[in-house]
User: Fold this.
Amino acid sequence: SQTIHQWPATLVQPVGSPLSLECTVEGTSNPNLYWYRQAAGRGLQLLFYSVGIGQISSEVPQNLSASRPQDRQFILSSKKLLLSDSGFYLCAWSHQNTEAFFGQGTRLTVV
Amino acid sequence: AQRVTQPEKLLSVFKGAPVELKCNYSYSGSPELFWYVQYSRQRLQLLLRHISRESIKGFTADLNKGETSFHLKKPFAQEEDSAMYYCALSGPDRGSTLGRLYFGRGTQLTVWP
Assistant:
């Protein structure tokens, strides 16, 4: 069966420090991969999505970047975190126009 | 551009009352519409999709292309239905045949005993 792992679950980082959140998928191949930020009152904001290795589409300009070094690995990064980067980040995978499966999420607090 | 609109952030009903969570979308092609649910301390998960036309946990949703709506309905709400509900849209963007998955901001449903 397919599973999705996202870590860490919680993270506290100082302003200006780098960020790396990792997401891996098991049990499927060539998935579409997504990074979302879930904010109270704003719902799920699509940050990045990828349809293949090295193929990244960015939805909104921001202080974050994403990479897909392997078929089932999706990484969310930042070189220098801002206070406004605090939030709850969700990784998800799907196949074209089918159900999406979500990770457990990462609560990021930038202090 | 806002593609999925859920006008209600919060919705409260009493147990046994009917409930309708509204969702409107903006899309020029033929999208796939979904409802996702997040119960307390659980992962976001699919509730239903329009293409399957099925009832899940007593919930149904009909795609109305004329009104560009995909409202979620249940005739008799239960306390265990209390959760955050997200409407979502998937479809290819202009110039691409590959779909993105967009969510509304969510509606927190509370069902009182």
Notes: Chain B touches chain A at residues 6, 9, 32, 34, 36, 43-46, 49, 86, 88, 90-91, 98-106 (CB under 8 Å).
